[in-house]
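For the sake of transparency, this paper describes our internal protein records without simplification. An entry from our holdings is shown next, in its original layout:
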Amino acid sequence: MKKITSQSFIGQQGANLIERIALQMKYAWRQLFVFDVGIDGEIEICDPVTGEATNAFVKVQAKATTQPFQAETPDSFEYTCKQKDLDYWLRGNAPVILIVCRPDKSEAYWIPIKDYFKELATQKARKVHFNKHRDRFDVSCAPALKQLALPKDSGIYFAPLQKTEKLYSNLLKVASFAPKIYVADTDYRKRENVWTKFKSIGVKVGQEWILTNKRIISFHNLREASFSTICDLGTFDSFDTSEWTDTDDEDKKREFVRLLNLCLRERAWLLGLRFHKERQYYYFRATKNLKTHKVWYQSIQNRVSREVFKQYGKKSDPRQGAYCRHSAFKGYFLRLGDEWYLEITPTYHFSSNGYDDDMFRAEHLQGIKRLERNPAVVGQLLMWADHLRKPIQSLFSSEYSFLSFGELATVDINTSLPDNVWYQTEEGDEAQNMRATDNQLRLFGL
């Protein structure tokens, strides 16, 4: 009696797995049953939106098993090619990929044959070293197959992918501010003279007030005892803050923004941040004994941590501190429509000992900016948004009431471009940087 061998079943299951993945890519899979001399099938590249076929193909040789792979570890394994197969794959003019799979576990891994074996030494060894993370064959490989199959001068255009994506801006919504603004005249002309007066009478007040043209404009009620010593209460007046927030008067808008910046400075201080007057950014202060400081924050899906202060050792002697890195941001208030936002620009502060500016700050900043890519910057942005929203207590109330923040402004779009499409265009160190762990979206729970 004729029998179908178990290897035939496994081989067909492998073909079925490859077909399922190709269909998820919206590509066409064709299995070859006649004159199979080293090619099991082919994948035709199609436009995943319109379905238009391109007549561009990738040839596929599949190797399926239910057993452990050769020299398998949790992260890698090997596959040794037969010499006659390798000669056949390299001889033709069509791109060929090798897919090694374990269909019972829905595992598949791949390499492009001609790229992998372009060096003579690699051809002589005939051995493929698979990385289970890098070489996984799944729907995310669609752009790589497209690039492999389509000639660079083909001129074929694919419609944008119809996929909704949420874009996160760097605009943090101002959720609340003081409901009233108080105004009164004063004999003082300079802010430092007012502080000297407060110090001489032993009072502590917040900094959420401005002095302009011998007039105090404040979120604090100027009838309070501390302010009454420097104000002419006969000129006292109060206004709804909306008269400043909704006005088209440029002077009033500037005054309101100045008040917001003073509130941000106070809120940042209560959150353990410091303000760099020269460079106009906020940064995490140094810890005692210069120990690494991490903060936990809510990312898009999970709670994760980030190092916000860290000391780095000298290359010659790691036990000696070379410089310290502090997470930092620049913040600018702006009004869009009827809403106010804080525009957050993540950056870094560098100190030599946790306190004094490091003389090589520019070089450190240039180096880290060169390594970081969009996902890492998004991680910082989410961290700052979460940190600035934290409930805090001030000297004057159980909760700081002059300024609070809401969520980052987002935009939903109907077109998405996978990051690995961009990755495919990069080479060398740039490609390595884009794939670095710190630059991967999975850090934020995406």
About this structure: The chain has two domains: 6-159, 171-175+266-444. The radius of gyration is 31 Å. The longest strand covers residues 161-177.
